[in-house]
């Protein structure tokens, strides 16, 4: 249609759009305002009535780029973005209250230059002008005030009195009234911003990424897409629905996301309500698409713990597919998936995961595979469900394990059967082993004799007092060829201990409260069972009177034995509705009987107490600081926290620190002799910890690291650079494992990071400089550049003197006198020793005679720059920079995703929460 240009080349073709296809629109309440064919149109979502409300001013050859609507004044700002950004303009229109849709009015708008204009109050709007400064204007398009803002490329609405400012690295929440930044989040090149209806959440849309934040611009989740992100809108339930070129997708604030449906052509979502997605296509036509929200509503209900809604959807919705099952397993709800999965193999795996042996047994019977029986046997054995274990061993014909199971449960009858089975199978080893377990000496003698082991058979019989059998065996020996073994006179009879209390029932399990889903399903089952009982009892009637009476003889206890005998179980269940007399005169022997004489043995069943929570588990629950999880021994969660907070991806260098920290976590002391040691868990908040609020004592302190810093300074002064770098790096890696109590110490920890970074970068560069050759002019120039860069590291004065002297000498030898003179002046300002100052003044006097540089170097001392810690080249202000999330070391963009050269553990350019060393940082 004349909107694309497709040039071809040898290996393919490229497609370029000649015009912007995204329509400009704004949504307020049930109304959609959008621009189409030089008209501002209004669409009512409820009635689907689409009318033109006014005609726009003509004259611009560029389409409207963006729109900002003011419901209080019924005004609209339309921004037009030109190819040359300096020629961009915006128009301020007041929308007519009443207009003819067939012949709409054409009000005269107020046009001014500006990149973007958005409303910030009822009668104020902000304009980002061509100089990238912020102007606040009134409804007359007059400048009210100018606001100084940080570097800004684009502005977005952020509620009354606030704006979102986009720069190259991220987005800043800016308060226009107070003229200060409230929060910053890192996400490059944000193109669109979508707020939820209550402005509690915001979605930041970049070209291939989405970041969802809360009102304070704290990142909740990041989503990366391989295809361009086109648009998005918030669902009524708080789910963000967005589109790419090919799909409609959803994103929960918890980070879960997925595909809802595919698209033939790109669309731009304007509103989501129920099962409908309201959108505009590329031809600016309003459309309504139907979607199935079951999947994301199900996940949202799980995240929000709305278990009634989850249960309803499990029973009524068609939730099928491996993705839902995998999601439930990942989130720790395998029992939910168990209720609607029909595939027996999947049911079996889920039942084992949630410990449901009964369901796993049913699935194993249906599958009848050896691998399933083996897995079920292992799971049942862990729970002490030995009856199921027995069945599994029988199905897999694992006779050795089955024999041992009968031994440890004390089932001698079945153990004797296993011995007979081994004899039938001609398994001499299993046969003899069974005889050993049973203590059957005669059987052992017979087995040894049948195996041809006459000597062992004779010794066994003689040792165990079987004299007749021993004499019979002795006669079979040939005196000339065989020697009769001697019997040890000190031999004793060893018999396996008999089982005093054979284990007939399964091992008792702890009584735990059922989960919501198990309880709901069980309640449903009980209700059905109760209904069945009532149906069985219903045919009763008035004939119960005579049969329910207890007929007593003259003495009053003629039928007492019958009652306590055969009908004891029935009498136990009789309630108040039965016509039974309770105050009977019973004989003394019956009165003195125990109350539970005729009751079930289950009345004495012991229910062990529920296991409490260990102190280490409480530490993990009470804190989000990595060191507390390390002290608790939870390395996995500590690693996850370090990854999320400071971007650690290589944990090898942390191994020694982790083990040292764990070794300080607890104390050991002897309670009673002959018993194992007891463990104590020292707390740092023992005064106000209470029962469950404890936090571990931390052995590493900020003051310790500061004292170690002095040792690093001494090594630097002595010129032992490699050893100094290792010491500085050890301090740097230890800082995330600190716990501090106040804001001053937090600032000191941040300052310590800066010191370590500056020294590591500088000393590493100096070490590399000394390794470089210096034969050619280019090599000498590179040596001078690195020496000059070193002078911009923030070092202690004593070290800066040494660095400046090195740079001064190198530049003087290269005949770059102008730069050498600058180094000389900086050196004299530091107040060096008299002899050093005297020599420096001589060099300065020589340089001032010829204040020129003989060679051009990649070094501009007057232009502020950061130093790339990998390539050791300057990154001047305005150039893109990637930083290490822990040390703050700067890198060129190609190094993004690599491991930081300073820390050797963190990922360059990773988006993280930030360093957390104090509970104050979580408030």
UniProtKB/TrEMBL annotation:
Residues 309-468 form the COPA/B TPR domain. Pfam families: B-prop_COPA_B_2nd (PF04053), COPI_C (PF06957), TPR_COPA_B (PF23953). CDD domains: Coatomer_WDAD_alpha (cd22948). GO terms for molecular function: structural molecule activity. Residues 514-923 form the Coatomer alpha subunit C-terminal domain. It is found in: Cytoplasm; Golgi apparatus membrane. InterPro entries: Beta-prop_COPA/B_2nd, Coatomer_alpha_WD-assoc_reg, Coatomer_asu_C, TPR_COPA_B. One of its GO terms (biological process) is vesicle-mediated transport. It is a peripheral membrane protein. The gene is COPA. This is Coatomer subunit alpha. It comes from Denticeps clupeoides (denticle herring). Residues 40-281 form the COPA/B second beta-propeller domain. GO terms for cellular component: COPI vesicle coat; Golgi membrane. Coiled coil: none annotated. Keywords: Cytoplasm, ER-Golgi transport, Golgi apparatus, Membrane, Protein transport, Repeat, Transport, WD repeat.
């Amino acid at each position: 249609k004349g909107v694309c240009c497709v040039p071809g080349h040898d290996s393919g073709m490229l497609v370029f759009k000649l015009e912007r296809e995204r329509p400009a629109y704004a949504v307020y309440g049930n109304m959609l305002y959008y621009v189409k064919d030089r008209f501002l149109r209004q669409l009512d979502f409820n009635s689907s009535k689409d009318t033109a409300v006014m005609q726009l001013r003509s004259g611009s050859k560029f389409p409207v780029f963006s729109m900002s609507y003011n419901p209080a004044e019924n005004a609209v700002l339309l921004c037009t973005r030109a190819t040359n950004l300096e020629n961009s303009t915006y128009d301020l229109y007041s929308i007519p209250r009443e207009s003819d849709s067939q012949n709409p009015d054409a009000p005269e708008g107020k046009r001014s230059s500006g990149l973007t204009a958005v409303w910030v109050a009822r009668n104020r709007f902000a304009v980002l002008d061509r100089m990238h400064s912020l102007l606040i204007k009134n409804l007359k398009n007059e400048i009210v005030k100018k606001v100084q803002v940080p570097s800004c490329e684009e502005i977005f609405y952020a509620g009354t009195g606030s704006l979102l400012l986009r720069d190259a690295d991220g987005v800043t929440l800016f308060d226009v009234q107070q003229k200060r930044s409230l929060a910053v989040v890192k996400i490059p090149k944000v193109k669109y911003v979508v707020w939820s209806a209550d402005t509690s959440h915001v979605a930041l849309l970049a070209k291939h990424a989405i970041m969802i934040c809360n009102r304070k611009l704290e990142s909740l989740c990041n989503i990366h897409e391989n295809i361009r992100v086109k648009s998005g809108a918030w669902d009524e339930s708080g789910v963000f629905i967005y589109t790419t070129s090919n799909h409609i997708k959803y994103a929960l604030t918890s980070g879960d996301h997925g595909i809802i449906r595919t698209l033939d052509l790109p669309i731009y979502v304007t509103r989501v309500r129920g099962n409908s997605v309201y959108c505009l296509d590329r031809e600016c036509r309003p459309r309504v698409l139907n979607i199935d929200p079951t999947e994301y509503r199900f996940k949202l209900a799980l995240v929000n713990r709305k278990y009634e809604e989850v249960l309803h959807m499990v029973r009524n919705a068609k939730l099928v597919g491996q993705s839902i099952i995998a999601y439930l397993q990942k989130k720790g709800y395998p029992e939910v998936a168990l209720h609607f999965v029909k595939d027996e193999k999947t049911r079996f795996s889920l039942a084992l995961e949630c410990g449901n042996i009964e369901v796993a047994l049913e699935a194993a019977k249906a599958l009848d595979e050896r691998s399933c029986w083996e897995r079920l046997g292992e799971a049942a054995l862990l729970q002490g469900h030995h009856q199921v274990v027995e069945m599994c061993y029988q199905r897999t014909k694992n006779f050795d394990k089955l024999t041992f199971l009968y031994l440890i449960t004390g089932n001698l009858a079945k153990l004797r059967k296993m011995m007979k089975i081994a004899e039938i199978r001609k398994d001499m080893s299993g046969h003899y082993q069974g005889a050993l377990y049973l203590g059957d000496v005669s059987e052992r003698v017979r087995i040894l004799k049948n195996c041809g082991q006459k000597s062992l058979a004779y010794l066994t019989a003689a040792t165990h007092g079987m004299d007749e059998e021993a004499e019979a065996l002795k006669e079979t020996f040939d005196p000339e060829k065989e020697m009769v073994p001697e019997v040890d006179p000190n031999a004793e009879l060893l018999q396996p201990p008999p089982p005093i209390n054979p284990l007939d029932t399964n091992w008792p399990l702890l009584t735990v409260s059922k989960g919501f889903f198990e309880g709901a399903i069980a309640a449903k089952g009980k209700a059905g069972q109760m209904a069945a009982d009532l149906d069985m009892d219903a045919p009763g009637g008035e004939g119960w009177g005579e049969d329910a009476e207890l007929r007593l003889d003259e003495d009053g206890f003629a039928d007492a034995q019958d009652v306590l005998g055969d009908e004891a179980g029935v009498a136990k269940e009789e309630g108040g509705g039965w016509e039974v007399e309770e105050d009977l005169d019973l004989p003394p022997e019956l009165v003195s009987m125990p109350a539970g004489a005729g009751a079930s043995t289950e009345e004495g069943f012991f229910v062990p107490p529920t296991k409490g929570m260990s102190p280490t588990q409480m530490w993990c629950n009470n804190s989000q600081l990595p060191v507390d999880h390390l002290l608790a021994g939870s390395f996995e969660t500590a690693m996850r926290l370090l990854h999320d907070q400071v971007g650690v991806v290589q944990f090898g260098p942390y191994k020694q620190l982790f083990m040292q920290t764990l070794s300080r976590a607890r104390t050991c002391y002897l309670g009673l002799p002959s018993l194992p040691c007891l463990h104590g868990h020292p707390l740092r908040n023992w005064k106000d910890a209470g029962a469950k609020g404890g936090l571990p004592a931390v052995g590493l302190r900020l003051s310790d690291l500061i004292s170690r810093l002095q040792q690093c300074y001494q090594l630097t002064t002595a010129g032992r650079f490699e050893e100094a770098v290792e010491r500085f790096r050890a301090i740097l890696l230890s800082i995330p494992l600190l716990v501090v109590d106040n804001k001053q110490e937090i600032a000191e920890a941040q300052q310590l990071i800066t010191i370590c970074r500056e020294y590591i970068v500088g000393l590493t560069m100096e070490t590399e400089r000394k390794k470089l050759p210096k034969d050619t002019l280019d090599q000498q120039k590179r040596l001078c550049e690195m020496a000059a860069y070193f002078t911009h590291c923030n070092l202690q004065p004593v070290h800066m003197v040494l660095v400046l002297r090195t740079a001064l000498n190198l530049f003087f030898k290269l005949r770059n006198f102008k730069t050498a003179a600058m180094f000389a002046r900086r050196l004299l300002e530091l107040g060096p020793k008299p002899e050093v100052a005297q020599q420096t003044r001589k060099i300065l006097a020589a340089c001032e005679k010829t204040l020129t540089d003989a060679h051009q170097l990649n070094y501009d001392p007057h232009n502020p720059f950061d130093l790339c810690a990998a390539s050791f080249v300057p990154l001047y202000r305005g150039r893109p920079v990637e930083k290490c999330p822990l040390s703050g070391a700067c890198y060129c963009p190609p190094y993004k995703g690599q491991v930081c050269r300073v820390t050797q553990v963190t990922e360059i350019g990773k988006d993280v929460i930030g360093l957390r060393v104090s509970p104050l940082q979580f408030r």
